[in-house]
Automatic annotation (TrEMBL), chains A, B:
This is Serine racemase. It comes from Microscilla marina ATCC 23134. One of its GO terms (biological process) is D-serine biosynthetic process. Its EC number is 5.1.1.-. GO terms for molecular function: ATP binding; L-serine ammonia-lyase activity; magnesium ion binding; pyridoxal phosphate binding; serine racemase activity; threonine racemase activity.
Length: 316, 316
């Protein structure tokens, strides 16, 4: 457990600790998308990360912070998405049990993905309360350590390592854009830039249909999540106190984009970059396309967060 | 024009000549696909190449072989696929005209892609004879230089550079697999391995539904293309005398795969590697999956040839 806002040293320690667990992902550019956007964009390909998403960094960071005795009891979380897979694979790599709480109506493909890593899937009612109750039960019964999908300083330090790698590989970035959901990556990115290159403008991209981050950033307190549907389902999480505390301090702006803008940006990345990315992942590029004047000729870093998408249900 | 089977020096000259025109594409690996296949595979990502396919190498190689006077008259070819785009972009980068002959019933998206590079599209009847007649007319009228999609030593030298880069980046490869269509890449790969690492087993992968290469390889003479349909439409070309002459000599084996095997391999690469590839491009990996005993623990190089696929018409 890390019980403070990660320092630069905490993030560097984390990078060391997870080095053998995660992939050092490549940074790709695309002349065609630079032309289309008028900017110069460096895409950090966390869709190539283990389990297909940056979440592997945060989960392995939190898991490796535990001492041997705590690890042996296992890792637990609630998630039917990338974080569940990340915790499951972290546990597998550490040789300890994993308990993943999922709504009973989650698609079996998601349950099977987690089971494929040797984790135990525990079904719960498909409500926030049902999920929390079941997770509490699991933690009490097993002694497993709960890893939050984002509201955990160890997780935030892990996500920050993606941005540190990007800053190291590409000197002179002027803007850094990440998607904003629960805020783990956003907070990690803000810290990494603050410590290593404070002149960078750090921007969060959010679906208009899940604009709680945008509203919170402006009001200065955590606003509730709207109930609207967005194709960027990975970003439908409320902020946490730990992530928002950092975001409030170190993020420069939050921009929202429409569903159509997300799908258009996603399609361009598929067609021109030949990369499979999930909708949430397209949000930062959608932000750039939305405001060509603002980003004209700027040197921009974007974290491509993940590529786990159902190929039989594409929006185009 | 190159009027002999490319020597190693010819290929190296070509690499120099096209260096500023093409991308040096990355080599990616995927732990998950290694597990699935039992082999150790290094994927050379020509789907990231300019115009989204390795064809850019061959076209730019042939184009840059011309002297200034010849260049000024322009480049011509017949192709509604990647080669047409490659010739169009080469001409654009050289600042000369391009004339691309296409069947009148070719999808407008393909015509527009070529027009987008500033080339002139000339429509023809949708038959082999109609195409040839129109091309001949264009060449006579304009004096443009015809660049064959594959049956040209300059083109073959260009395709060989992809394999040279892969051999330079990954030492110790034991097997090299490329798709086999008209044979340009296959011939280039065979030459590159022959010159630089002759111990490598060079294998062509072909759709069962377009197995003229397989039959030709076995009979020792160019066999006609069958008329069956394959999803790997990029491989529905007859061999040429120049490509087959090299293939007969330096390729070790040709393996055919079914439509189902191609689609399965394609889907795995999309899902696990997060790469958009076209069906033709999946054929070499389908070969590996078909014969697990043969390829077990082998260190294999595969050229991912291209990523130009209609996202609204996927086979899964």
């Amino acid at each position: 457990m890390l019980d403070r806002i990660p320092t630069l040293e905490d993030i560097q320690d984390c990078a060391q600790r997870i080095q053998s667990i995660i992939h050092h992902t490549p940074v790709l550019t695309c002349g065609n998308l630079d032309e289309v956007s008028g900017a110069q964009i460096f895409f950090k390909c966390e869709n190539f990360q283990k389990i297909g998403a940056f979440k592997m960094r945060g989960a392995s960071s939190a898991g490796t912070l535990l001492n041997d005795e705590a690890r042996q009891k296992g890792l637990a979380t609630h998630s039917s998405g990338n974080h569940g897979q990340a915790v499951a694979l972290t546990a597998k790599m550490l040789g300890v049990p994993a308990y993943i709480v999922m709504p009973e109506n989650a698609p079996s493909v998601k349950k099977n993905a987690v089971k494929g890593y040797g984790a135990q899937v525990i079904e719960c009612e498909s409500t926030a309360a049902g999920r929390q109750n079941m997770l509490d039960k699991v933690v009490v019964n097993t002694g497993a350590h709960f890893i939050s999908p984002y509201n955990d300083y160890g997780v935030i330090a892990g996500q920050a390592t993606a941005v540190v790698e990007l800053l190291e590989e590409v000197p002179g970035l002027e803007i850094m854009i990440t998607p904003l959901g629960g805020g783990g990556l956003m907070a990690g990115a803000a810290l990494a830039c603050h410590y290593l290159q404070p002149s960078i403008e750090v921007i969060g991209g959010e679906p208009k249909n899940a604009d709680d981050g945008y509203r919170s950033f402006r009001s200065g307190k955590i606003e509730p999540l709207a109930t609207e549907v967005t194709i960027a389902d990975g970003l439908r999480s409320p902020l946490g106190d730990k992530t928002f505390g950092i975001i409030k301090e170190y993020v420069n702006d939050v921009v929202t984009v429409t569903e159509e803008e997300i799908i258009h940006a996603m399609r361009l990345i598929w067609e021109r970059m030949k990369l499979v990315i999930e909708p949430s992942c397209a949000v930062p590029f959608a932000v750039v396309l939305q405001q060509p004047e603002r980003f004209k000729d700027k040197k921009i870093g974007i974290i491509l967060t993940g590529g786990n998408v159902d190929l039989t249900r594409l929006p185009f």
